[in-house]
TrEMBL record:
Source organism (scientific name): Salipiger marinus
Listed name of the protein: Amidase
GO molecular function term, any single one: catalytic activity
Similarity comment text for this entry: Belongs to the amidase family.
Residues of the Amidase domain: 25-444
Cited NCBIfam families: PRK07487.1
InterPro entries tied to this protein: Amidase, Amidase_CS, Amidase_dom, AS_sf
Amino acid sequence: MTDPNSLSVRDLAEAIRSGTLRAPEVTAATLDRIARVNPALNAIVQDCSSDALAEAEALDARIRAGDQPGALAGVPVTIKVIADQTGYATTNGTTLARDLIATSDSPFLRHMRAEGAIVVGRTNCPAFSYRWFSSNAQHGTTVNPHNAALTPGGSSGGAGSATAAGLGHIAHGTDIAGSIRYPAYACGVQGLRPTPGRVPAFNQSGGDRPIGPQLMAVAGPLARRVDDLRLGLAAMSGYAPEDPLSTPAPLSGPALPRRVALVRRPGGIEPDPRILADLDRAADLLRRDGWQVEEPDSLPDLREAFDLQIDLWLADGHAEKLAAAQLEGDAGALALLNFYADRAARWDSAALSHALLRRSGLIRAWRAFLADTPLVLMPVCAELPFRQDEDLDGPEAIARLWQAQLPQVAIPLLGLPALAVSSGVENGIPSGVQLVAPPWREDHALDAGEVLERGFGIPQVVDPA
């Protein structure tokens, strides 16, 4: 049988719909690879093999009966353990929630299943999804398949590792501060943070989220190909009554000016020389494709957006977050929350009001900028992927790592979609660049991302280093 990983999502689904490949065979091949490769990675931490095989057999029977399944017909996908999936624990990487069994699917997953996707496993994250590293007491540590000394990223580190290792074509991730984009960057794959409201998400098992996550957290896809992201986004998206922000916005819009702002040092950070070289390579690829790339004289503020995002996520409700982390006893969660404890102590209703007012002003400024130049090319991170568990080295390390992540952390507050595109792997170290587009214009970022992918190369499936 053709190796499923040799095919794009589009080609794989078409082969299954046409009968050239059968869903049970594709699912079995993927599960076989998971059984061989995942023990070295611990990317998938909840086994869905029995359900996956049964779903693939049912899909195959429908196809043979003449039904036409959707765009993800028989495509193997993974789901992060932060999301409800019927019959599985929504642990969010904690022992506290190990028995929190979902009785329904999160709406994005319901949409993916309606398009024929087959869930082959559930992927790891750090406890409470707080860190840039994916390790916890409930599921253990996830390894970067390119280099075990490096983090696979967080919080969707299991998703990034699984995608790079060919343990599913599309991985679900979540992103409130870079948790899709950073694992994609660290694992050498592609990752898309959609516009808030694009992909509906709600966990019946956990109920409603605080104000910061409601405004800034999104679900979205990771994949090895940009076009796979496009199909994954389409399958996840759509209106769902459970999510108050869900919006049935069109997936594409009128052609936008092909003008790009190249921003090498957003917020005053100083990227690694290799990252600066990647940005220059990306700019050259876009120019050769007819895009107009210029370095702007000024840019709306990102550093204030970075600071406000941290407050709305970590300072708001800090005491409850800290109490839960203490009960869990997770070193990484405690290190982060203790680092921001003094800042959180100054957080009150006046600070919340100020943050929401300033957020409106920053969003307005960025939308005005993107109206004229509707794509920004900038780093994903100022540093190459961090050393595994580097945030446990003390407060100075946490401060440095979070400052390096400013290009990712600032974007959620602004309500903008952003795409991490792999620029390749050198000496076992992945890198990449980030594209930021206007709200609801993921299609524009994906179009540019495909240009970069053609130049950088499609990430290849990797076996653990």
